[in-house]
Specification:
heterodimer; A: about 140 residues; alpha+beta; Heat Shock Protein 90; four-stranded antiparallel β-sheet; 3 helices; globular; B: about 110 residues; alpha/beta; Transcription Regulator spoIIAA; 4 helices
């Protein structure tokens, strides 16, 4: 199912006006976040539910306001350990531990919270280009 | 993801296509480690020209392949890297640790 989400999200990001590299960055971040949920919150069970919401928001930035894509992922898995959410030094060449680094590098805001028995990950990517013409 | 292996003298060439992600990277890892650790092929080449997407688990599999090649004294070469793969390897700061060729001809050259 990850490839379905990747394809849909890539199209959504492009529709919102993100550049091709930005679309790839958003897709990578969300894919890595979903992978982390399956691996760590659901201990490898890919059949458990993950709720995802995507919406265009307007956020204050540099004294002005600008559009952004907000993505919220929620799961009902085990509580994430903040100590294990620090990624790793990239100088250490070894497999694993890159996912969180990719998410942080790809998105402008990465916020994790735990509420009502759910893990919530909020990701925001600022839109740097003008919004596409209506109806295009 | 699909993996097809070809053999050219003492070189194994893997033609990989599709997406390398959480679901498919274990198969890539298994194929690489078999060729390097079990069969001890002197050179393993990955043709990534038809790979559409790679995530951190795919990068981890490549790193495992690289480490295995160093352990057994083999060469581990990538070629056919498109923009998506280059971006991800760049993001992981791992682009420079791999031996990367422009095409298959270079990757199998003596």
């Amino acid at each position: 199912m990850l490839c379905v989400v990747r394809n849909a999200l890539g199209e959504l990001a492009a529709k919102l006006g993100f550049s091709e590299p930005e679309c790839r960055a958003v897709v990578l971040a969300v894919d890595e976040a979903l992978t982390n949920i399956i691996r760590h919150a659901y201990l490898g069970d890919a059949e458990r539910p993950i709720e995802a919401s995507f919406r265009r928001i307007n956020v204050p930035r540099d004294g002005k306001s600008g559009d952004a894509l907000e993505i919220v992922l929620e799961d009902r898995g085990v509580t994430a350990n903040p100590k294990k959410m620090c990624g790793r030094a990239l100088e250490d060449v070894r497999p694993g531990g890159l996912g969180l680094h990719f998410i942080r590098e790809s998105m402008d805001t990465v916020e994790f919270s735990r509420r009502w028995g759910r893990n919530q990950l909020r990701l925001v990517k600022f839109l740097h280009v003008q919004r596409p013409e209506k109806g295009s | 993801m699909q993996i097809a292996a070809r053999h050219l003298d003492k070189i194994t060439i893997f033609d990989i296509s599709g997406d390398i992600d959480l679901a498919t990277s274990p198969a890539l890892r298994k194929a690489l480690l078999r060729e390097l650790r079990e069969l001890k092929m002197p050179r393993v080449v990955l043709n990534l020209g038809a790979v559409r997407y790679i995530d951190s688990s795919g990068v981890a599999s490549l790193v495992e392949g690289l480490k295995a090649s160093r352990d057994v004294g083999s060469r581990f070469i990538l070629f056919g890297l498109n923009r998506t793969i280059r971006e991800v390897l760049q993001l992981s700061k791992l682009l420079k640790i791999f031996e990367i060729c422009e095409n298959e001809e270079q990757s199998v050259a003596p």
